[in-house]
Specification:
binds 5'-O-[(S)-ethoxy(hydroxy)phosphoryl]adenosine, seven-stranded mixed β-sheet, alpha/beta
Length: about 650
Amino acid sequence: MIKKRIIESVSKKSKRFSPSKIFRENAHIKSFEEYLKLYQESIENPDLFWAKQAEELDWFKKWDKVSSWKKTKLECKWFEGGKINISYNCLDRHLDSRGNKTALIWEPEVGKAKKYTYKELHKVVCRFSNVLKKYGVKKGDRVCFYMPMIPELTIGMLACVRLGAIHSVVFGGFSIESLKDRIIDSKAKILITSNASLRKGKSIPMKNNVDAILGDCKSLKKVVVVKRADDIDTFMKKGRDVWWHKEVDSNNIDDFCKAKEIDSEHPAFILYTSGTTGKPKGVVHSTAGYLMYTYLTFKYVFDYKEEDIFWCTADIGWITGHSYIVYGPLANGATTIMFEGVPTYPNPDRYWEIVDKYKVSVFYTAPTVVRALERFGKKWVEKHDLSSLRLLGSVGEPINPDAWMWYHQVIGKGKCPIVDTWWQTETGGILITPLPGAVDLKPGSACFPFFGVKASVLTEEGQKAKKGEGGYLVIEKPWPSMLRTVYKNPKRFKDTYFNKFPGMYFTNDGVKCDEDGYFWIMGRMDDVVNVSGHRLSTAEVEGALVSHGSVTEAAVVPMPHKIKGSALYAFVTLKKGLSGGIDLISELRNHVGFEIGPIAKPDRIQFTNELPKTRSGKIMRRILKAIAAGKEDVGNTMTLANPEVVKKLKKERLPL
Ligand code: WTA
């Protein structure tokens, strides 16, 4: 049986899936040769390539220099000397040609959907820009968002970039403690939040919770509150808190706000993300390079057509939502969907219902969603007409071949290519991906680098890895949407991304390239874990556990999980005299939820008197990872000061 499964999985792995003739003929890039030719051009003569692409955007003033890279200073610049505005490119420039086309469809969890044409979106963005102006927001000021998936989030972000204000969106599922850290780090002037978020038909207070941290956020001058639910009594502090609807609908606010001419390299936004150590880092993205790259990847990776209805299911609190719900689609003049709810409420066919309702043609989601919905069976899919779909996408973690096949056969009915897109918060846009009309797909492989991306696999010593040999994924040269720095922390920028292989961008992902040049991403090599496609740092979860009064030490490692991809497994030692039980487990989980957010709660907590350590006192996480995964062979334990602990930990391991 096992042998048969292996043979099947190998043959699935090596099987290739070609796009249909019709798909190929209608695609922007129609053959592998065409992709290769353009790719070569983009690598051999990048400035020429990017200058040509940049002509597709609207500029107030064209650039003097396409790109520059000062390796010693780690300073990369794109389209220097140019002046442009992201909001203008996402809205104003479409008004003549597609003013009445739907720009944004908002599907609430329950209730009536809202649609905004380009004209309508432009108007409300302008009005909100004027509100921000009224409160003194200027170019360079930071504006923080802590919101559920409601249209005001998209509107607010576009209003910020219209003025050159720098937005910092904090995922609504993070705790208010996390929000506080991010507001303080970025010294945000304004916070935009909601009085409630909706979950499974219930209103959950948001603004009232946020109040607890506002006293510590000295930089904040105003809090703008969207009224998402009427059934919540919302406390509003006089002079500080204002209602979004009252401000935006006020008679004194103008329908038009001129988009500011912004320097190409001016920061567009900060997005905090987890790293190996310490607090999350503020990834800073630029204006022109970011816009250029999200525009172009959206066009080619999703093979964008004017009549497409595009749906990316990510939350805007993550980079995927920034780049492929908001900026990439709108810069192309596309119709983009924003969904407030979850895939399983009220039933596990919610996503397929939406695809059917809006005749979605391009659908972009995460493998964890595919696996979760596969579990409910085909019957939920078959209730709906999915014939509008022509292309599927995957992002956030490696997609296992079985999930790939289900996605391909059951959702795509065998006719939709799947673009498995590899990228990161730091990369701004998709870096490794098949172009769907040009590449034969291999399930589980992200295929080839996008135009202008010089990706390589390096060994520990910095040599190019051989075909089939695993190594570190690096990008040899900057691309337009590379992060520019870590907010207020250039040292961390250098140490995290450019120290391991000087001058090259280090991704922290493991990868191998097969004999045909296909890239196979193997996952993080550092202490970052993707849990249900959400990026978390084990070090941060450890920090949260240790901040609880009863914990002495904690080690958190990923363990394989059928649906989530990875789950968190924590080994915890308690203060003398304390013993762990069910109550303490739930208290610790809640504590992590309070410190970071519910998504970071460990699935398993195992108490132990000791952790395996080297003689110099370093916790051996490698061994703990093997134990959590239920491996018999946990590797070399010779260097441990306390090897006997391994046996005990193995015996007491908590299976999923
Ligand atoms: C992982 C999400 C395999 C990877 C856009 C990366 C993937 C991390 C893929 C970044 C993929 C993302 N195949 N792994 N197609 N896409 N990853 O910053 O480990 O939330 O480093 O950005 O997700 O996560 P982030």
